[in-house]
């Protein structure tokens, strides 16, 4: 029903605007590499979110969340990757500090990294499994199809917010100019990614109901 969709959009929109790991990650990439990298990261994390949506629709995410071992393995892979990205960002902070990454190869790399970061985050799977089913009505048709449609809408809202964050972060970056300020921003972004990786590594699987 239209009223149910409006309610879903309202809740999903509020959740998308709530600062979380995805927003901080995209902001960090934009501050470190400029607008092109930030946008590429935004769409990369969006695609990674769709991976969880499709997996949840066919029940794979539910199986992962039910298995402590699978959850831990996926969590540690994602955490280690985030930490590695953070360390690399810190180490290369002084390289071409005056010029943001604008090459196609840099954008492709940021996109792929965004996909991996989001697709290996089991907390994203947990979110979709906990949030989307609340708005599914089995009497209205295929549960899997409803899950996919609502999940895609949620990912689209998250990506839209990430794009806005990218423009905001790069505006801040532009005002600070180049040189030392950008180098410090990149190092701060690297430290933020390391922190997100550690936070993911320390996260725990939600207890079974």
Main features:
209 residues; 9 helices; 79% helix
Walk me through the structure.
- The protein has 209 residues and is mainly alpha-helical.
- It has one domain.
- Helices cover 79% and strands 0% of the residues.
- It contains nine helices and no strands.
- About 3% of the residues have low confidence.
User: What class, by secondary structure content?
Assistant: mainly alpha
Radius of gyration: 18 Å
What is the first-to-last residue Cα distance?
29 Å
Poorly predicted regions are 96-101
SSE ordering? HHHHHHHHH
Counting DSSP H or I runs of 4 or more residues, the number of helices is 9
What number of structural domains do the residues give? Answer: 1
Which sheet architecture does the biggest sheet show?
none
Count of individual beta strands: 0
Shape: globular
| Helicity, as a percent range | over 70%
Overall mean pLDDT:
81
Q: Strand-residue fraction?
A: under 5%
List the helices and strands and how they pair.
Elements: H1 2-17, H2 21-33, H3 35-57, H4 60-66, H5 68-91, H6 104-119, H7 122-131, H8 143-176, H9 180-202
